[in-house]
Write a structure and sequence with these properties.
With 335 residues, the protein is of the alpha/beta class. The protein contains ten helices and twelve strands. Helix 3 packs parallel to helix 4 and helix 9 packs parallel to helix 10. The structure holds 6-hydroxymethylpterin-diphosphate (HH2).
Length: 335
């Protein structure tokens, strides 16, 4: 692991002191960075002290992904075509019901739809690829005509292949292309963008691997290494979204430590995708046992993430998230 990391400290809306830099080329500025070392105390430095390589990656504008510019926050609406997803399992198995829900999310303000045919909740068992294809491909074909980009949430090349044939334009792999060796070449050949997420182990055993000395820096370093490996397999960084993998091989407290200093991940030089929607830690810290009652906490965490420059939010509750984002943007614009 590197021994020094730099986290940009976002400035409040409108403040642009002399020498302030644009975070990922977007609307948020920063003029100070936290210097972070494993096991060490954070030191606040002026952004002028940034090493050139860090400054370049932190500030470069991010290219559009799946036709979506990333100069403002984007919403990825979740559509799980599974019997057992922790929040919406069993609701959209029928392609007509799935299409209806996708259309509704787009009307409510989603920018793209993420289709999953395998639950990746802690302890979930792997689904055979034929079954995953059977669940997802007809749904993708059914919603392809809605005009929005579609992402396929899968770890498997055969499933991604069928999804691309049916109209998917983005691959979202919670294993960061580590699970199926055939998936990286497929993505590279397709030229499509991919979300590379951080996880340890598999959904079945990942919570046994949630031991870190410094969760923020170790997750960053492991994701950095994963992205470098993906890039070495022919997928340009301009096609990669990075995701710290909230809830994947992480305890509730570890999720919070990552969310608290999320802007560090801009150092990867990729747009950041974040999935916190209705997850267990929202229930734990927000006092909501039932997943569908975790909307308010999910939106609160999403707004905090946008303030740290996150470009894409993966959410179940599109209308609530869009309303909150509109208000956040209106208040920021009134500076
Ligand atoms: N979380 C889940 C699934 N896919 N993909 C990315 N990139 N980031 C995430 O945080 C993420 C993800 C788990 O949530 P959900 O799909 O709602 O549940 P399940 O895995 O039970 O289907």
């Amino acid at each position: 692991m590197d021994d020094v990391f730099y986290r940009p400290v976002p400035l409040p809306a409108g403040l642009m002191p002399c020498g302030a830099l644009p975070l990922a080329g977007g609307p948020i500025q920063f003029d100070r960075v936290e210097e972070l070392r494993p096991g060490g105390r954070a030191r606040l430095l002026p952004a002028t002290a940034l090493p050139e390589a860090w400054r370049d990656r932190l500030c470069a504008p991010r290219p559009a992904i799946a036709g979506l510019t990333l100069d403002r926050g984007r919403i990825m609406g979740i559509l799980n075509v599974t019997p057992d997803s922790f929040s919406d399992g069993g609701q959209y198995l029928d392609p007509a019901a799935a299409r209806h829900h996708a259309a509704r999310m787009l009307t409510e303000g989603a920018d793209l739809v993420d289709i999953g045919g395998e639950s990746t909740r802690p302890g979930a068992a792997e689904v055979p690829p034929e079954e995953e294809i059977h669940r997802t491909a007809p749904v993708i074909a059914a919603i392809a005509g809605l005009g929005a980009p579609i992402s396929i949430d899968t770890r498997k090349a055969a499933v991604a292949h069928a999804a691309i044939e049916a109209g998917a334009g983005l691959i979202n792999d919670v294993s960061g292309l580590a699970h199926d060796p055939a998936l990286a070449p497929l993505v590279a050949d397709s030229g499509l963008p991919v979300c590379v997420m951080h996880m340890r182990g598999t959904p079945a055993d990942m919570q046994d691997h949630a031991a870190y000395e410094d969760v923020l820096l170790e997750v960053y370093a492991e994701l950095d290494a994963r992205i470098a490996s993906v890039e070495a397999q022919g997928i340009p960084r301009a096609c990669i979204l990075a995701d710290p993998g909230i809830g994947f091989a992480k305890t509730g407290a570890q999720n919070l430590a990552i969310l608290n200093r999320l802007s560090l991940f801009h150092g990867l030089g990729c747009p950041i995708l974040l999935g916190v929607s209705r997850k267990r830690f929202i229930g734990t810290y927000g006092g909501a046992e039932v997943a569908a009652e975790r909307v308010h906490g999910s939106v609160a965490v999403a707004l905090g993430a946008l303030d740290q420059g996150v470009q894409m939010l993966r959410v179940h509750d599109v209308a609530a998230t869009r309303q909150a984002m509109n208000l956040r943007e209106a208040v920021r614009a009134a500076y």
